[in-house]
């Protein structure tokens, strides 16, 4: 395990494997703490395939299954066992939110299974994620009531009974050292909340106030645990005096051009450290999503609670990590209904349903999903024409993996579909004028990047758009056509700024997910079904399906897009320069 000597901002290849050595408590009086952390697990309770889909029998026999709660439980228990025996440092296990949505497990069992599995892991503290607040995904209150851990949310107030379950901070007494924990949550939750039940406070303002309260109680070490975009996290680490470490979730700081970890990932991890005005070093850490990795940091503190050195790594949860037997029993006790419903064959596919390129380009799986939505709505529409909503959009972050059976035509099960769809929100129709629609199309590619693909990239049905990526963000649409609705034979026409368009989309997107704030507050109609309902019906009626890539999204001058690793490094350096200039 290599000791990391940190520049201000840098990229680190995440290739270090779990160490088999025992880390003994320091004998020089300094306080040492081991922190294990993960985030964005998205209902990957049992082990998954290399692409985070269902782990098949062939995958298991080949040792190509990864992650799952039982492997997390094993690592956490072993670390706690070492701490209890005195052979290892004290341990905190922290989770940074987004346990909800993403597999058949959550679709069938909802909050109950999320609470049961988190309780089995026994985290010392958790932050909530934006998916826990997503409208229509589940009820939040029973989830919070059934969690047997500290739920920290410093910057939000729930104007409901749920607020009684939240804590603004918590203090751990570890061998006479007070370790404080504060929590934060992205403002996206205020957009996801359409009932006005969430009062959002700026993260920096809320954390400053709570950290000061902890310092008044002689808390020497303070950790911020939360769920937000990287620019806000950098602001927190810079502006909140007294914070020693930030553990984050929400976005995956991984790139697709790095070094492989056991052939399961081809990504590079960003790890950032911020130097505050006082000279204090504040590391920012985050683990990979879908339970594939477990973050690990061993930090050594002086008597004033300042980090004097630390070692950070990602533990790949591959087949070399045993699965905890008690956690496996939780899975086994709940598998009957999963297998009964999940193994039901919906239909067949004659081609690979590609979900892996959907953040970069038009993908046939995205076409199939959006076509199924427009079809499901149209056949139920009662009006003079064939529909009033000929367009469907879905953000690519809602497509988590491909369905790629080796032999085709191949059966598609409910588990296949639900494991490939992250969104659990119902669909809505949203009415907007052409000006707003063009803003939506522009935002889809505003942060286009090969090496850090964005979940805001949209897949379409009923839209044909050509982008010039050599142009500045906000002016990249050079041609855009939409399918007509007040017509006997559907055709495509240019977008008029003044014309009203009714578009189908997941309610989470209409609530501003992925930064689509221009959609918030527009006229909408809530529907009582979701994307999974549409795609199941579509495949059943048209099986075997063979969706194609049909020129709905054309990308020109792709070579003009800068390398994202370079771009992000430059952005972070610029941010730090600005911060240094302001506070210096």
Automatic annotation (TrEMBL):
Presence of the UniProt keyword Metal-binding in the record: yes
Domain Calcineurin-like phosphoesterase: 35-250
GO cellular component terms attached to this protein's record: plasma membrane
GO molecular function annotation: 5'-nucleotidase activity; metal ion binding; nucleotide binding
Domain (5'-Nucleotidase C-terminal) ranges: 346-520
Keyword Cell membrane: no
GO biological process: one example: AMP catabolic process
Annotated EC: 3.1.3.5
Alphabetic keyword roster: Hydrolase, Metal-binding, Nucleotide-binding, Signal
Catalysed reaction equations from the record: a ribonucleoside 5'-phosphate + H2O = a ribonucleoside + phosphate
Span of the signal peptide: 1-20
PANTHER family: 5'-NUCLEOTIDASE, 5'-NUCLEOTIDASE-RELATED
Similarity remark: Belongs to the 5'-nucleotidase family.
Identification of the protein by name: 5'-nucleotidase
Organism (species): Parnassius apollo (Apollo butterfly)
Organism phylogeny: Eukaryota, Metazoa, Ecdysozoa, Arthropoda, Hexapoda
């Amino acid at each position: 395990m290599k000791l990391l000597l940190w520049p201000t901002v840098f990229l680190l290849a995440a290739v270090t494997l779990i160490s088999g050595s025992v880390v003994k408590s320091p004998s020089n009086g300094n306080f040492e703490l081991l922190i294990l952390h993960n985030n964005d697990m998205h209902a990957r309770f049992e082990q998954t395939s290399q692409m985070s889909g269902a782990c098949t029998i062939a995958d298991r026999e080949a040792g190509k299954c990864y992650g799952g709660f039982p492997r997390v439980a094993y690592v956490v228990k072993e670390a706690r066992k070492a701490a209890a025996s005195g052979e290892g440092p004290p341990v905190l296990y922290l989770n940074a939110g987004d346990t909800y949505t993403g597999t058949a497990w959550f679709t069938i069992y909802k909050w109950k299974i999320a609470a049961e599995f988190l309780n089995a892991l026994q985290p010392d503290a958790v932050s909530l994620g934006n998916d826990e607040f997503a409208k229509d995904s589940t009820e939040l209150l029973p989830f919070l009531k059934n969690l047997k851990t500290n739920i920290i949310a410093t910057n939000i107030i729930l104007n409901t009974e749920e607020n009684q379950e939240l804590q603004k901070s918590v203090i751990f007494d570890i061998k006479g050292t007070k370790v404080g924990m504060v929590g934060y949550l992205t403002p996206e939750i205020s957009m996801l909340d359409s009932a006005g039940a969430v009062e959002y406070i700026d993260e920096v303002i809320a954390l400053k106030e709570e950290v000061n309260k902890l310092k008044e109680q002689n808390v020497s070490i303070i950790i911020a645990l939360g769920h937000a975009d990287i620019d806000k996290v950098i602001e927190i680490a810079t502006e909140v005096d007294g914070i020693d470490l930030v553990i984050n979730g929400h976005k995956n700081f991984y790139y697709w051009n790095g070094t492989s970890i056991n052939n399961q990932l081809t990504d590079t991890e960003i790890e950032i450290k911020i130097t505050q005005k006082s000279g204090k070093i504040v590391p920012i850490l985050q683990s990979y999503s879908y339970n594939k990795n477990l973050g690990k940091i061993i930090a050594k503190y002086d008597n004033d609670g300042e980090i004097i050195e630390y070692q950070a790594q990602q533990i790949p949860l591959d087949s070399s990590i045993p699965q905890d037997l008690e956690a496996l029993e939780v899975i086994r006790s709940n598998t009957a209904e999963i297998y009964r419903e999940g193994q039901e064959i919906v239909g067949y596919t004659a081609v690979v349903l590609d979900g892996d390129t959907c953040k970069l380009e038009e993908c046939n799986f995205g076409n199939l999903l959006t076509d199924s939505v427009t079809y499901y709505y149209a056949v139920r529409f009662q009006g003079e024409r064939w529909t009033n909503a000929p367009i469907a959009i879905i953000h690519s972050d809602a497509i988590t993996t491909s369905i790629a059976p080796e032999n085709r035509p191949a059966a598609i099960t409910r588990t296949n579909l639900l494991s490939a769809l992250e969104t659990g929100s119902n669909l809505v129709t949203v009415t907007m004028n052409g000006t707003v629609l063009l803003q939506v199309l522009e935002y889809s590619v505003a942060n286009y990047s090969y090496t850090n693909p964005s979940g805001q990239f949209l897949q379409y049905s009923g839209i044909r758009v050509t982008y010039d990526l050599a142009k500045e963000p906000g002016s990249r649409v050079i041609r855009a056509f939409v399918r007509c609705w007040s017509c006997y034979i559907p055709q495509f026409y240019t977008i008029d700024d003044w014309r009203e368009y009714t578009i189908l989309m997941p309610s989470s997107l209409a609530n501003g997910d992925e930064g689509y704030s221009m959609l918030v507050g527009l006229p909408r109609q809530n529907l009582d079904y979701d994307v999974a309902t549409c795609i199941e019906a579509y495949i059943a009626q048209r099986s075997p399906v063979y969706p194609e890539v049909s020129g709905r999204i054309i990308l020109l001058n792709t070579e003009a897009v800068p390398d994202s690793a370079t771009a992000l490094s430059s952005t972070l350096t610029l941010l730090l320069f600005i911060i240094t200039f302001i506070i210096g």
